[in-house]
## 1
Amino acid sequence: MSKQSQLREYQTNILARLENAKKAGAETSAGYLGVVIGSKNVLVNLQEISETLPVTEIQPVPIVKPWFLGVSNVRGVLYAINDIAQLLEATFTSISSNARLLLISEAVSSNVAFVVEKMIGLRNINEMKPHEVELEESACLKAQTYQDDENRIWHMLDCDKLVRSKEFATPYII
């Protein structure tokens, strides 16, 4: 089996598991999608995202901050596409075949999506231990971090806090 078809099968499996976890009403304390944003491993609550997609064509918008990439047509609906890595650490997310768009759930905000460098897979924080060093909260990351069995540090994304932050709500350059 070629590497390309193995990758496609792996991604299809993750997406199917993600959909099954959401349908089963995954506990908010356990149901997370692991992604890479900038230099960080980040946990995204499954209840805060509605879908994951390959990155589609993004139409740039003039006079906006660099982290606001533009808009993209997702099945006839325009979504505002954001690069959280630029917002957090001023690093661009490389748009490759591994990059994904995560659509924020309608329960949090309408027509907002963000780019991640890659998806790692479903994670359960009940199988992780709290990391002893808490970080200063940012525009979208919680202070609490977790450590998995492989000693990787995981940050927690708070989509609700992100869309309500003053910086995120004003992407235009003044």
Note: The chain has a mean pLDDT of 87.
## 2
Amino acid sequence: MEFDIRKLAKFLPAIERPTYKPSLNKKIMWTGICLVLYFMMASHFFGELYGINPELTKRFQTLEMLLGSSFGTLMTLGIGPIVTGSILLQLLIGAKIINWDLNEKEDKEKYQVAQKLFSILFIIIESLVFALSGAIIPKSYTAFNLFLIVLQLCLGGLIVLLMDEIITKYGIGSGISLFIAAGVINQVFISVFSPCVLNQAGCVLPSADKEPVGRFWAFILAATNGYAYQAITALVPILTTILIVIIVAYAQSITVDVPLTFSNVKGFGRRWSLNLFYTSNMPVILAAALIANIELFGGLIAKPLPNDPTTSCGLLGCFTQTQSGNQPISGLVYYLASPKTNIIVDVIGGTITTQYITRIIIYTIFLVSMCVLFSVFWVSTSGMDSESIAKQIDSIGMQIPGYRKSPQIMKSVLDRYIPPLAVLGGLSIGLLAALADIVGAFGSGTGILLTVTILYGFKQQFKQENLEGAHPLIKKFVGED
């Protein structure tokens, strides 16, 4: 007899769905509460893990923005376990290893339980790996101290899982998207406007020989002192970030409109808009999380070289210790991880090499390929395929003009648009993410791209809400006032 995974649902932590439709103000309130809690958990002041050495948690800070995490705090795991579990489940269903039809209510319920089960499993696994492998350095390697660290990491992961459910059911959007956007915006603001110079003693004000973290102030300082090259290198990433934001915002507005009419009411109709980014930012989230996990795993299994303790090597490549964390310098991880440089600045400085160009090409091909693959999988597993959309259109009494009212016929028409859009959308968002990484957009290229698409998605969701009684700023945000 086949085991029904839904029986496990009663043993898993869960947030009950509301028995009423929450108002927009209540949705904003719950989203805001979760956002404040996220920042508190990610703060070393409120959420620092007990029993660790906080000075040694900066080695993986390049992963923090992609995972919405903050190493050394309760938000160390971030959305990593949720996204990793989703990736694995997507692959199992896409490869038909798990034969579930997510158009069926029963299989969809199984998928939801399995997704939560996988997330909890990865929370436990990643907590153990982080504590035992050296990603989080404890003050002492006693069994009790390691147990406390694992317990805190698991607790933080479970809180993130529940906050994601709260936002999904009572708030606006999803916790995964919100936490990514919050982390990236925080990092971008620091990268552009922080007047401090970070060193071992903390944050101190800049001086003639100490460049500020914020590129805006670095540009002002260099320009006033007549340092042309330094001023250009400070200004270029600001301009490239603005350019990427404009391109992504424009691409978000590209749609394919399918005309619809009411089958029982003549003369009335609407258009069903299919965006170029049909699967939104999910493909690049999943692809970026996959790359982040590969980079993290490569760093964890790498061992320091006897003659050079700042360099560590392992099966996936070699890493070197820098102020910004573990940086890959060779091997598979070097070519799959984001270059984290600015090709425009490198061209101006004449530092372009054949290895550098090869890395950019391989990284771009891998990222774009993963985005296309996850976009196709996401369409088939999230109810966005032609058959599901055709049933949805038919259920509201509409049809495509010029065709007989039939879900099968509507499916055949939608097949002309949705599968190509899934591929083209994944391809487009992958190329934009790669471009943003290569030209050095702040917040990591992928991070700033995700933030723009997430904010655009929030705007579209706000438009679908009843704005009566909403704050004037909300109405201005969606263009209603």
Note: The first strand starts at residue 197 and ends at 199.
## 3
Amino acid sequence: MRGTQINKRKIFNDPVYGFITIPDELVFDLIEHPWFQRLRRIKQLGLTHLVYPGALHTRFHHSLGAMHLTTKAVNELRLKGHDISTEEARGVATAMLLHDIGHGPFSHTLENSIVTGISHETISLIFMHRLNKMFDGKLELALHIFQNKYPKGFLHKLVSGQFDMDRLDYLKRDSFFTGVSEGIINYERLLNMIDVHDDNLVIESKGIYSAEKFITARRLMYWQVYLHKTVLVSEFMLMRLLKRAKQLRMAGEKLFATPALDFFLKRDISEKQFLEDPSVLEHFSRLDDFDIFTGMKVWTGHPDKILSTLSKSLVNRRLFRIELQNTPFEPDYLKKLSAKIQQQFSLTDQELDYFVFHNETSNCTYQSGHDNINILFKDGSIVDITEASDELNISLLSKPVTKYFLCYPKGVVSFV
């Protein structure tokens, strides 16, 4: 821990917001902790840089940005007469700072391959509990806010909700680094329009058009960035690559891996073990994008056909073909395609599953009836944005959209 003589009122020069000031000495010490510094080594958007080359920003960037917006939101609410103490301001800023500390490398890809049965939200909570002990209980209030156990519920809504500072930052930041201008939102206008009514965050009616833009931008960013078809195929290829690596390692095969990665490749870890065995979190805290990518680079020369082929494909960006459509694929089409690929690439039945796979993805841009984005009118009435908006598409965005995709190697001879 740094000595008290260190100036802890530091600033970061952020490309999105300009200068970000560290609001509190506790926040400074948490940022300095190796567990938080690990977020510098985890990209915010995983493999999205394979589509948008500029998308190389990290979870560290995002966490600082979300904390910054939370601090600005608290200041705005104070100006509007809401009582938020210094301790509460520190608690909500700390909760937001640490909200993503449980993310592993390549985020959701890891959750579905080598670290299963536990979400990054749960791991974040475990990290926060451990940090709370290290910092002599100073994170107690932040933990209550993070878990929505604090009497002032609106503080939790700043951290987690349909209109929270997490979403506000990642939309602004991700659109900036990807160059996808459709995701740009007027975050300053939105922050100036927030208020609290009956312990819920609301947006003043004069900010309704900015709120509409926020929802529309989120939809566009999902389909253009987060669920872009090339991002989907690369992430599912990585999932299969890591599952194959784990399958080989658990079968007793020697496989190059960093100690942190090898720890998770050679054993199945349950949520109970995360909670009860401190060594599990310690190994997880050393795991980042570099472990995965280093493994992939070495595995390009591995004798296992599945492992080497998938590794070469991702390292050299020779991705599988992906077909994306609004309806499920016909079973007969899948059967014929699988048979053709199996024959053309001389695959066994077990190997085929790694080379031909299909799934679905869905996105509900706005869930009406669940933690609504409410508009506050001058007469004191509160109306959900889907009813208050004169944009017909806002109500349509509350319905989930599902798309189906099919992935397989390029160069398949036509079988039609």
Note: The mean pLDDT is 92.
